[in-house]
Amino acid sequence: MEIDKAIRDSDDRRLKTKYHNAIYVIQRALALYSIEEVAFSFNGGKDSTVLLHLLRAGYFLHQVERGHSNGGLSDGEFTFPIRTIYFETPSVFPEINSFTYETAASYGVKLDIIREDFKSGLEALLKAKSTKAIFLGVRIGDPTAVGQEQFSPSSPGWPPFMRVNPILDWSYRDVWAFLLTCKVPYCSLYDQGYTSIGSIHDTVPNALLSIKDSAVEKQKFKPAYMLSDGRSERAGRARKLSAAAACVPAASNGLKCAEPHQGSIYTASIVAVGDEILFGIVEDQLGPSLCKKLHSIGWLVSQMATVRCEVDSVAEEVERRKSMSDLVFIYGGVGPLHTDVSVGGVAKAFGVRLAPDEEYEEYLCRLFGDKCTGNRNEMAQLPEGITELLEHEKLPVPLIKCHNVIVLTATNVDELDRQWDALIDLRSTNLLAPTGPFVSKHLETSLSDLEVAQPLSKIAIEFPDISTGCYRKTRAGPLIITLEGKDQETVEAAMEALSKKLPSGVKQISV
Questions:
Q1: Which of 20-29, 196-205, 279-288 comes out lowest in average pLDDT?
Q2: Pairing relation of β-strands 387-390 and 439-445?
Q3: What distance in Å separates the CA atoms of residue 100 and residue 175, rounded to the nearest whole number?
Q4: CB proximity list for 414: less than 8 A, separation 6 or greater
Q5: What is the rounded CA–CA span in Å between residue 84 and residue 149?
Q6: Is 46 helix (H, G, I), strand (E, B) or coil?
Q7: Which residues of 141-177 are buried (b: 16+ CB within 10 A; e: fewer)?
Q8: 47 phi and psi, to 5 degrees?
Q9: How far is CA 298 from CA 154, 163, 243, 246, 294, in A?
Q10: What's 484's DSSP letter?
């Protein structure tokens, strides 16, 4: 089998590890389900092209292990038995269509052509043919990968099947290393500067691959495999997506699409890990600073918690918060010490094990040099199958993201500022989705708490979307009343209504 031989002959240790892990997932699926119960969703893109050849190799090796084939079979003698579905739409690139049909002919792939939307087509397919699992070319970092693991049941409201994601933990670099090492054909658009291909309406070549040549009238681009920064993979798509287009399910996922959060409030939870904070030895400065940063972009911090340096304590808190918040930020307890348990706690919260991450280890080696030995290698043990590395030029080491949990490595406010700036720059990945800022109004009064209690209660009932709060800087000082919301007119109306309900001596101030 030429794919397996190409990988065995390669000197790329990282690629070998990714390949063997993917083959393991495929063989595990083939052991759980019969060949008649599995299908493969192929869309002609680079990721599903990689998966096609991994499935060819995985099925071949599966047969060899079972004694049904001998290892000397050539490509021409090997047929691809997994039912393959292709969703053909009017908005697909002609080059993708041509490549798909040519690939099917070259490798003996029998295509089930579906000309409906993904969900409707899938429902019809599963009614016609019993299918329990579908192999998908989803990778962490894809918009459709949120919440997925290597084996993930389909989302509520979708036909029931098991999503099998053998390349979930593959990076952009891994995909191209595989395609180039194995010398397999891929869609010609990738040689024209396209790095991530959607529809003809939302995809252009990646400007980062543009070749500046004034002598050439038509703009030219380098091939996709020359993109050095994998986080810019979708740069040719993200800026063109409209709200409507963003909710068209891609043929490679099987996930329902979330509606754009226009005018809504995103929520975040913050978890600090540190015995020293709980013992009163050090004062936590990162939590309040992070609250201010989130508030400044219109996010609502719903919870702040500090937990002991214990794996179970971290896991329990993350488990509670990850299902209640759009994002969970965790800091402290990151490093090589026995008390650095944050990453292990996150892994336990998601029910996965820690596994070596070669890409992260490379960053650590560059940072620590010869000191990157012994326990420091344990820092490269990350939650298996759910980790995305958030790379940025401002960061010496990427931040760790596990689904909706972000592990911050900052130990002081200056480091937090740099990491926050990097996260803001990564907004194109929908990491910190922009939302409308909060509008605040402040009133100052010399009235007592008892005198303002009833009017404030009425305002809370009349304006349920407005947050109301009171505080004094000193016990004898004036009472400051805060009204906050997303809609300026509503906030101003609430402030006017409250002013009328209170006796004289109330004035608006800026804080």
A1: 196-205
A2: unpaired
A3: 18
A4: none
A5: 21
A6: helix
A7: bbbbbeebbbbbebeeebbebbbbbbbbbbbbbbbbb
A8: -65, -45
A9: 32, 35, 20, 22, 7
A10: E
What's the one-letter identity of residue 104? A
Strand, coil or helix: 205: coil
Structure tokens at 464: 């349920």
Q: How crowded is residue 3: how many other Cβ atoms within 10 Å of its Cβ?
A: 24
Considering only CA atoms, which of 316, 340, 339, 308 is closest in space to residue 407?
340
The residue whose two tokens read 């080696």 is: 365
Secondary structure class of 457 (helix, strand, coil) = helix
Q: What is the pLDDT of residue 259?
A: 37
- Residues 382 and 397: their CA atoms lie apart, in Å, by 14
Tell me which amino acid residue 124 is: A
Q: How far apart are CA 460 and CA 11, in angstroms?
A: 66
Residue tagged 């012994």 (tokens)? 374
Rounded Cα distance between 178 and 125, Å, is 31
Cα–Cα separations (whole angstroms), residue 110 to 83, 84, 387: 7, 6, 34
Beta strand 220-221 pairing with 210-211: antiparallel
Q: State phi, psi for 39 to the nearest 5 degrees.
A: -145, 165
Summarised one tens digit per residue, pLDDT across range 204-260 is 998 889 887 656 667 889 999 998 777 678 778 744 333 333 333 333 333 333 333
CA-to-CA separations, 396 to 59, 236, 365, in angstroms, rounded:
40, 26, 11
Long-range contacts of 255-258 (CB under 8 A, 24+ apart): 255/144, 255/146, 255/147, 255/148, 255/155, 256/119, 256/155, 256/156, 256/157, 256/158, 257/144
**Structure tokens that stand for 217 in this block:** 């009238």
Enumerate the β-bridge partners of residue 469. 482
pLDDT tens by residue, 326-381? 899 999 999 888 888 999 999 999 988 787 777 788 888 787 776 655 444 677 78
Q: What is the pTM of this model?
A: 0.54
Category of 268 on φ-ψ map: left (φ > 0), alpha (ψ -120 to 50) or beta: beta
> Does 505 have pLDDT greater than 60?
yes
> Which residues are within 8 A (CB) of 417 and not within 5 positions of it... i.e. 6 or more apart?
none
Q: Which two tokens stand for residue 46?
A: 């680079």
- Structure tokens given for 36: 């008649």
First to last CA, the chain: 70
Exposure of 378 by Cβ count < 10 A (0-12 exposed, 13-18 middle, 19+ buried)?
A: middle
